[in-house]
Amino acid sequence: MMAALSEVIKMCLRVMAVKETKGKELYKKIVWRKLVLVISLAVTCALTLLLDISTGPSQLSLFEVFSTIISPNHSDPVTHTIIWTIRLPMALMAIVVGAALGVAGAEMQTILNNPLASPYTLGVSAGAGFGAALAIVLGAGVIPYIGEFVTSINAFIFSLLTCLLIYLIAKAGRMAAETMILAGIAVTLLFHSLLALLEYIASPEALQAIVFWLFGSLTKATLLKVGITSVGLLAVVAFLSTRVWRLTALRLGDEKAKSLGINVEKLRLEVFICVSLLTAVAVCFVGTIGFIGLVGPHIARMCVGEEQRFFLPMSLLGGAVTLSAASVISKLVVPGIYFPIGIITSLIGLPFFLSIILMKRRGYW
Amino acid sequence: MRNLSFSYGATSVLKNINMKPLPGKITAIIGPNASGKTTLLKCICGILKPIEGSVLFEGREISKIRKEELAKHIAYMPQENPAVAFLTVFETVLLGRLHSLSWRVSDEDLEMTLKTLESLGISELSSRFLSELSAGQRQLVYIAQAVVHQPRVLLLDEPTSNLDLQHQLEVLDLIKELTSEMRITTIIALHDLNLAAKYSDEVIVLNFGRVYAAGKPESVLSEDMLRAVYGVSAKVNAHDGVLQITILNSIRKRLAKKKCG
């Protein structure tokens, strides 16, 4: 990640260097535009993060917020608690989970060759939801502290199982775009019906816990969870960044990619495993937060195209910005209340989803 | 020295094919639909593994050469190429040099990409997205992608299928030029027999996965061959040393008509 970042900066400097041959000039033109877009989205991301930290039910001034962050030891204890145990973890979680879902969506779309693929549309979130509900109904949700982690771990396991299921379906259906989406619907419906069964037999308390989990929420974020998700995100991005060109070449079709010396099956499997782990980590702590994995890459594709050196960071930032913005909105809808963020992302994401479907006619996919 | 001999046994797609294409020459593979042209090309570039027999590249069996290594020397352009990838023309061609690309793109890669784009006359399209191009323009882009890393062996599957008459001639002229200048071993699957006659140094006729005939165009492209392999009657004339094939009609149709009559 850092290596990639420093390369981007170096690239930036090189691009600005004078005296160039024609080939470089052309390349410069293409790369420069994309670089500007990536940087502006990064800046936007930083701004939404700040905005996210400074909004909340307790009316804190901007000055109070920043002084508490910069010098935690010299601040008012109440403000300190609000910022460090509630707002900061939530805001960071929004960024990290958004980024993770953006990356996961982007690479799912790349390896399945389908712009409609994302953790949510393929049913991974539904699988995670079922896993979480199972843990809650079996009693784990009632145990304080540990119970919450058991729920997350179960959601994690079920996300992975769902990914495996999708991969098997994808292989059997030869990765055809339509097959994948229909398979995603089938998987989602399967877990929804299993979930309904669980809800039917659940106690009222468990039922409430399930429903809350399914809404998707950042309110249970802690710095530890942010840390775990960040580690997962960094590891996966580092791995993917060594394969940027090969992933880009996948867009040329399997045959061409193979003739370029790429072991296509191996690459697909490696990336799919990475992306599944990343999705599972992101989803297991926050519940069902839909469409981020679709919106992030969609923004990226529109802005910088599918050359992965830009597509990957742009999808990451796109996901982060979207979820961070949704987090801000979730605090503003009903002042004083954290509105479940999953509802907001679904409302934002659906129009995107529909627009991508409609773009098929214009040769978008 | 390149010495590509090929044989592939036992299955119904390709049967015991032997060929020895030469560097600096264009070998055209012709034959009706489903005669195994594409399969043959895929075997040569190592995407498909022959059940029997082997493909030799510079005396070494290609299945024993590492894939990345092989890809440096052999370029393959499939018949079907994606139309909707969100990549610019420049990036698409650059990908042809995959083996030397990293986060930093070297000046050499950039220069070769531009040079190739210029030689095909499409450098002004460089920053356009693939989906904004016509089918013919895209075809040129993919040809550029195949030749951009200066392969020793160039395999093209129907490179002229989407091109208008002028572009067909221009592209094949260019391929011929590159082939002899850089001593590339070029193998092209072609549908158009007149183009095969005009541009190839050697023609291989495939029929039901077997080599029906092989040799110089003038000895292979005969009225008898067309009747036997394609099921058409035709006239073959020599015009200034280039064969001209005029297709008259399908024999199958005539037989059917006769039966009806």
Shape of chain A: globular
Helix content of chain B: 25-40%
Largest sheet of chain B: 6 strands, mixed
Give the tally of β-strands of chain B.
10
Number of domains of chain A: 1
Biggest interface and its residues per chain? A-B, 38 and 50 residues
**Please, how many helices of chain A?**
15
What's the CATH H-level homologous superfamily of chain A?
Answer: ABC transporter involved in vitamin B12 uptake, BtuC
CATH topology term of chain A: ABC transporter involved in vitamin B12 uptake, BtuC
What is the name of the CATH superfamily of the largest domain in chain B?
P-loop containing nucleotide triphosphate hydrolases
- Classify the secondary structure makeup of chain A into a structural class: mainly alpha
Task: Write down the overall geometry of chain B.
Answer: globular
How is the CATH topology of the largest domain in chain B named? Rossmann fold
Name the beta content range of chain A: under 5%
